[in-house]
Amino acid sequence: MTIPSTDPFLDATEAAEVALAAAHEIEFVLEKSTDLAIRAKVKNWKTLPGYPASGSEAALRLKGAAGAFDHNTYKPVIKVSQEADVIKIAFTKKGVDSMAIYSRLRGTSAWNKLAVETTSPYFDSSPLAAPGVAEAREYMARGVLSDEEIGLTSDIASITFGG
Length: 163
Description:
Elements: H1 8-46, H2 56-59, E1 78-83, E2 86-91, E3 98-105, E4 112-117, E5 122-124, E6 135-145, E7 148-150, E8 157-161
Antiparallel strand pairs: 1-2, 2-5, 3-4, 3-6, 6-7, 6-8
């Protein structure tokens, strides 16, 4: 039991402390019951088909590989674009060590190996065949694993390059 004081500010402070303690108790009870309800819902969701497992699969929204890596059917995907006075060849390795990048002028049959690149993108800075004359270039790539080209060639990506 609290002894009443003659100071109205002290009485108001004590009343506020009692109200705060009661509010904290209500918050604790509500939080506990809400947490239980949320946990029950999440537990139910985790049993649904297609729900990712815990760990990195759930956090990164990744699903484990469906099968083993097949050297014979691997096919790279490349994307070409022009940046300033170079051609940018972007790729994702997806299981290989590096990419062998090839180029040719459209209409020719021989491919020229430009590089074996471990990081994307690769920048082709080769000059125009005839200075000041735009040319249509084609690019393709092959996956490289343990210093050996594997799998299928990528689709051919074309771009008109003006230098």
